[in-house]
Amino acid sequence: MAMGAVAMHGRWGWVAGVALAVLLIGAGAAGLAARWTDAEPSTSLGRVVDNSGGVATQTSAQAATATNTPTPTPTPTPPPRSILAENQIVAYYGNPISPIMGILGEFDDPEELVRRLEAQAAKYQALNPEKKVVPALHLVYAVAQEGAGRDGKYLYHMPDETVEEYIDLTRKHNMLFFIDLQNGRADPVEEAALVQKWMRHEHVHLAVDPEFTMAPGERPGVDLGAMDGEVVNRIQDLLQQTAIEAKVSNKILVVHQFQYSMITNKDAIKDLDRVDVVICLDGWGTPSVKREKWEAIAVGQKNEHISIKLFYRWDKPLLTEAEIEALTPRPHIIIYQ
To answer: How many alpha carbons fall within 13 Å on the CB side of residue 205?
Structure first.
């Protein structure tokens, strides 16, 4: 369960076992990040402008030179490369202006957050010599809301500057970065399309949360949402196209699940060569409850890759690193909220 829906006006309660958090929309996100542009200087083809403002035609020598210039060989698209083949990922999840949504929002100093995450990842590395353990930050970017808002989508987006700040931070520390979409009543494929500009970065990946993906007439925090396998495929298609065009490694797509009903038509989910779909066993509880869910979803259902989420505040007691590494199959991603 991605306990991340936020209210415009104060706290709202648990529904169907889901913790809904307080996010003050008016609060400013920490810091501003530099923006990038892909613009290139324009060029004139076939003629030049002289200093007097008139147009001077090319000489025959200039034209011949232009004609004989060899066409550069296109850079070949690299073959598919799954990050998960050689790496295990340990992520800190949340939102920077709502501590209750996860550990990512509990530290004002991002460098302190990084230090704690690296220490957590090191514990897994000591237990898993077969793979490199890579730290990651997992930002809830599109946050489900109690109220419909002017557009009726029950959704708030974090500022672009905040996203870009985390992209810079994770790149600086050789970490991965996940952008999480709760969707509300917005079209989940359209929401995924909005963030493809960031997916072009080698280290940036996507997560979607069916819990807060609402059908018409449903409301976050009142109803348990769902996502169809064909919708997951359409999001995969976007990521596949981005990975090919940007010539980057496979994109990871995390899909949260803690009830069977949250992913309908699950067997229809495709296995694309440029996208690694990871089903994240979400939801808090005792170790016995979490192991029972693991057996039901991670073992009992079809999954390309598998993940588990742990809750510092609500898992009593928290499963240890050794207990997580002993799970079968071994999780590809461990997320701490």
So the answer is: 28
What is the total residue count of the chain? 337
Cα 259 to Cα 320: distance, rounded to the nearest angstrom: 23
Q: Is the pLDDT of residue 15 over 90?
A: no
pLDDT at 14: 31
Rounded Cα distance between 47 and 59, Å, is 10
Pick from 186, 180, 230: which is nearest to 208 by CA? 180
What's phi and psi for 208, nearest 5 deg?
A: -130, 150
First to last CA, the chain: 10
pLDDT at 40: 32
Give the count of beta carbons closer than 10 Å to the beta carbon of residue 91: 30
Q: Measured between alpha carbons, how far is 90 from 315 in angstroms, rounded to an integer?
A: 17
Q: Let me know: does 103 contact 111? Beta carbons within 8 Å.
A: no
| For residues 182-188, average pLDDT | 97
Q: What angle do CA 133, 134, 135 make, to 5 degrees?
A: 125
Could you tell me the fold of the domain covering 6-26+81-336? Answer: TIM Barrel (3.20.20)
Confidence of residue 73 (pLDDT cuts 50, 70, 90): low
Residue 281 burial (10 A CB sphere; 0-12, 13-18, 19+): buried
The candidate with the shortest Cα–Cα distance to 101, out of 136, 134, 135, 138, is: 138
- Please state, in angstroms and as integers, the Cα–Cα distance from residue 29 to each residue in 23, 96, 159, 160, 164, following that order: 11, 7, 7, 10, 12
Give CA angle at 128 (176, 306), nearest 5°: 60
Domain ranges in the chain are 6-26+81-336
Residue 69, pLDDT score? 62
pTM of the model: 0.79
